[in-house]
């Protein structure tokens, strides 16, 4: 088992694995923007649209991180934005779908597909944490962006659309999302520090 895990971790930076991840994340990002097309069209004023497609924006940023790894480069600010948002919205989507089901939303194949793909988003952010070069100041940059996004999402009602059954609880979802943002910021930085210390020992 240890040998298999070591092979898997080593494969994370192998060109064939990175290309596979780039293609999967890239196609998923395209699908995500198509998914948000109608909500983007309905969002006004237009400058708020940058805050609407949370998941596909996050997966696009992570795709760019994978490309930088492929070419042997690192962009710490990009890593911070990608890792935090990709983890946050990966967990958020799974949690919101399950919460909707808990209050009566009937799940279909799309829900399960979304939970699988978004769970993968969260997982990849954690797996690649061992390669991030971000610093604490980059986490603060992401904190400003994500917390502003949360504020706008739940005061201007531009958050990703919820199941009808979950709409009466959108204020609870808003507070939970804020908590998830703070947890995501802490977790990514804590993991980076952990792997950095381990490399030094």
From TrEMBL:
It comes from the Bacteria. Keywords: Membrane, Transmembrane, Transmembrane helix. The chain crosses the membrane at residues 16-38, 58-75, 87-103, 136-152, 172-192. This is DUF1405 domain-containing protein. The gene is ypjA.
